[in-house]
Design brief:
Chain lengths: ~350, ~350
């Protein structure tokens, strides 16, 4: 393994993140688990949801917004379903437990679904849906997102850019992993544009007068409005909005929390994150080998589709991330200088060695 | 009740559709059930998926593409899940049976999921997810759609505009019913534009050179390409595409059929429709009254959001359809002259009275 200059070795990065989280107050085992999920996200190229958020998590732990020793409870009235109260625990720990709960139920009944209230930010949705893959299940993961969405017809924030992820295993190919916010782009994409110093394309967000915003710094300062997937009502933005509300129903209302879609002005300082996890045991439908072979066949069909001029290939959800993970595991994770600086700051604050 | 001139009474319309289906060969009880679901769709204002398709269904029955006396089979390996083989039965009958199967399983285990192969066109997805409402469940309904989607980077048809619907009950308010194709708009919207003689807005579809198409007649003749929700890759079209593939996995692969996303040239004359149904029993998560009150509270929040100039109100998925159903039940369903003409043609062909 040759770690390219300017990149960071995944194991070193995970060790660093685990030490940071542990020094901030998260118990050792939980810190390790969370750091692994965080670095997995960077490995898959989802730079908006990986260690770039570590300093923010450390801050939330310090302020007590993340409870480092939560009393997580599970309530269940039926074999296939449950509600979990995360007691403001770290989203990665709560999320992983809840997904395991859903899968254990699916093991017995074929399907398992767990709605989670009182959690905190759980990173990228895909790391939980993907937990279903080695168990030959289809995994589903949803979460409330930051308050950034303007609803169709509105002129201010009205809903979170709630996230949905679905993962399905294959035989030889990369696994299918859809992981999407219900806005045109996730807020993290705006932060990446800021970090890179590039403009946001038109069609991502608008200001309160309905005009396009393309300067990411300005967008973040002014709390600009992200458009629901579809963009305009004529082009189906009510679908992106509808998805966001459906996710809020499954995560927030079904878990016994309050809906999180609301105006920005509402007092929401104590607003928790809520999640929803699901698992479908494939062999309770059809034999696993049949399912996986059909998945491989589907990938072949898409690979063979005729393409527009200048397009090298057609990719499926999860394909680029799979390739990136292979590449980054072998040759290191490229971190933006600003992310490295934030990690250095974390190291200094928590008095741990910075050796990335 | 005063039926407005130019409109058709819902009961009369349902009787007519039932007689037509029965005369075409569907058994009496099945014909009645299907006609009710068809007219329910018109009542809700989804004019693209109601009786406007009756002549097409009658044709499919005549050609044997719809099996009027199917031997529908259910295979189950676990309490919460099942696979159904529809034996090319009428989609309305197969769909209704499968959704009932999912709900009966949810009654026992909290969650029920049924993947369906070898069905035919089942109309609007919302009529099945809504079956869960009176049983205090959250309903999910998905189906493969017509081959109309160009995938990001492609220059021809590559996927169906697969459909997903989610319904959740409320206490006093209209129920939440999301019912969406994974393209910017459903193909039926193009047919409505043709019927009305209006142009399609830019952003719905393109030709094989990648240029916008706005003439619906031309679009249908040339088998134009509908864009995935999002429109362009910069604006998230990979999300609409990802949704379409996720739906194909759940409907087609999980049911043991072949994936339906494929190039238009593939031999697909025998291509069946596949569905996926789900039900979550609300009181296996939290008390039903708590859930419904929170849903009403959420509706209030959206009603109170500040709006752009010229916008009367902000509406949620299912709201306009709910109001339309009330209005049309009271004063009749307005049918386009071309739809009335197609019904007249059906009456003549099947030798039944036309008294709409």
């Amino acid at each position: 393994m040759v770690i390219k200059s300017g990149t960071v070795d995944a194991k070193k990065l995970a060790n660093f993140a685990a030490r940071a989280l542990q020094n901030a107050g998260i118990p050792e085992e939980d810190a390790k688990i969370s750091a692994d999920l965080l670095v997995r996200t960077d490995l898959r190229g989802i730079d908006s949801h990986g260690v770039a958020n570590l300093d923010w998590y450390v801050d939330l732990i310090k302020t007590g917004d993340i409870n480092v020793k939560p009393d997580i409870k599970v309530f269940s009235q039926a074999p296939a379903t449950a509600v979990m109260d995360g007691d403001q625990g770290f989203g990665f720990i709560v999320g992983r437990l809840a997904m395991a709960e859903a899968m254990n139920r699916a093991e017995k009944t074929g399907a398992g679904f767990v709605a989670v209230r009182n959690s905190t930010h759980y990173g990228a949705g895909g790391v939980y849906s993907m937990m279903a893959l080695p168990r030959d299940m289809i995994g589903i993961s949803m979460t409330t997102g930051g308050l950034h969405m303007v609803v169709p017809g509105g002129n201010d924030i009205g809903c979170g850019n709630n996230v949905m992820s679905i993962a399905a295993p294959t035989k030889k190919g990369f696994p299918f992993v859809l992981d999407m916010a219900s806005t045109v782009v996730a807020f993290g994409k705006v932060e990446i544009a800021l970090r890179k110093g590039v403009a946001m394309p038109e069609g991502w967000g608008i200001n309160r007068e309905g005009n396009p915003m393309t300067d990411p710094a300005h967008f973040i300062q002014e709390h600009g409005l992200l458009l629901p997937l579809g963009g305009t009502t004529e082009r189906g933005s009510y679908k992106g909005f509808g998805l966001a509300v459906a996710i809020d129903i499954l995560t927030s209302i079904l878990s016994g929390a309050a809906p999180t879609c609301m105006p920005l002005e509402e007092p929401n300082t104590e607003r928790a994150e809520n999640h929803f996890f699901g698992a479908l045991r494939i062999d309770s439908f059809i034999p696993i080998s049949q399912f996986k072979e059909a998945m491989d066949g589907m990938i072949k069909i898409f690979e063979g589709l005729s393409r527009s001029e200048g397009v090298d290939r057609i990719t499926l959800a999860g394909q680029i991330e799979y390739e990136k993970e292979k590449e980054r595991r072998a040759s290191g994770i490229p971190l933006h200088p600003k992310v490295l600086a934030s990690l250095q700051k974390v190291a200094k604050e928590l008095d741990i060695e910075y050796e990335l």
